[in-house]
Specification:
With 299 residues, the protein is of the alpha/beta class. The protein is built from 13 helices and 5 strands. Helix 6 links the parallel strand 3 and strand 4. The radius of gyration is 22 Å and the shape is globular. Pathway: Amino-sugar metabolism; N-acetylmuramate degradation.
Length: 299
Amino acid sequence: MMKLTTEQRNERSERLDRLSTVEIITLMNEEDQKVPLAVKEALPQIEPAIEAIVERLAAGGRLFYIGAGTSGRLGILDAAECPPTFGTKKEQVTAIIAGGSQAIFEAVEDAEDNAEAGRDEVRKQVSSSDVLFGIAASGKTPYVLGAVAEAKRLGIRTVGLACNQHTLLGASVDYPIEVNVGPEIVTGSTRLKAATAQKLVLNMISTATMIRLGKVYKNLMVNVQATNDKLRKRVIDIIQEAAQVDEETARRSCDLANGDARAAILMLEFQTDYAAVMEAMEAAGGHFGRARGQLLLHQ
């Protein structure tokens, strides 16, 4: 049986242990440059997956990433960054990793080989209104395949991300994404190019989804959560940029809007109060652009 591409030896790095430091990092950099091009080839697969996720989340569903090892950790990272960046509820985008929380920081032996554990997690946590997003560089991780199989049985929409072609994962999901990054410079170490490709794809998935859900205005993070001094300053900057006002006006509006950049921007633009703006936001399902459109109609 032919080895998976991610498990094959890279001819360019066969003398890796004899290279100087600058030669090692130059080779790594050259190999890493192949990753965005491989992701580009997968854009036709990524687009329909995002459309499916947007549809489910707009209807109140949730997105669950599931994976093992590095793949699972990348899912956790992407999910964890959605609430502070886009103001989502923590349950809207979440992640499951083989072996549980212990596996975030250390290897849990055999966890990725337990297909039944993957099935159990889906039965316990995921519903038919959600999307299950399996992540596996190899495309054959039993834990992920078990989860996807159970999701399919329960009528849950499924997406799969692998870094090989013609994978079991790809064949098992509704929306396969297969990014062929080629062999790693350290044979089989998929924390390198494969993980970089996964991070790029997950960035696209969550960011494009949140843009489509109205969490961004123009290119501004209007849903950012001001949880520290840096982010509080960013909220003021966003209000200034969007409403074209000075810092003092932006700060005053931010205070009146309880720190909500969306509300502050709309209050300034339409010269209305917080309650009216939040009523429009609620009617628009939290979609900034639609809320703004409603306020325009009622001017």
